[in-house]
Amino acid sequence: MLKNKLTAAAAAMCILLCGCSNNKDVDSQTTSITDISITAQQVFDAVKDKDYAADMNATAVFGDDVFTANCEKLYGEPAENFTDGGIMYVSSGASADEISVLAGDSDCEKLLKDRVDRRVSDFEGYKPDELDKIRSAEVFEYGGLWIMIISDNSDNIRSDIQAIS
To answer: What is the greatest pairwise CA distance in the chain?
Structure first.
């Protein structure tokens, strides 16, 4: 009888430890992503020399006059509402390719998703062949930043961004 109780207790401990272990794994994965702290400039530096980003030839980053002057138009909020941000884009407007980055107390995820919606509206009558790319935009959090990618090469861009540590 004592042996059965010990076996039951051991089994219960295993279940509890496995459960705790899984929770710790999830927490440590979340922590490792949120513990990484990167800047918008690092995001742009990670992709600027890649062939797949060659058309994105212009950037505006948090703190410079171009970003400050255009922030509200691009994202719906003034630059002072953010702690970091920027945009890498095609200066000619020939394509919708873009990487936008935001950080701050605002709902950056929503602001970037709203940006995607505005890009759809911008390109509907201008270059409808860009719409599939825009509608496939990725918006995700990494390194304390919210990042939006509009590109046919979003997988490569995302991989290069997530290689920053």
So the answer is: 81
pLDDT single digits (tens) 130-151: 999 999 999 999 999 999 999 9
Strands 145-150 and 82-89: unpaired
Instruction: Determine contact, residues 160/50, Cβ cutoff 8 Å.
Output: yes
Residue type, 69: A
The token pair at 114 is: 């709203």
Helix, strand, coil in percent for the chain, rounding step 5: 55, 20, 25
- pLDDT tens per residue, range 6-50: 444 443 333 333 344 333 333 333 333 446 699 999 999 999 999
Encoded amino acid at 84, one letter: D
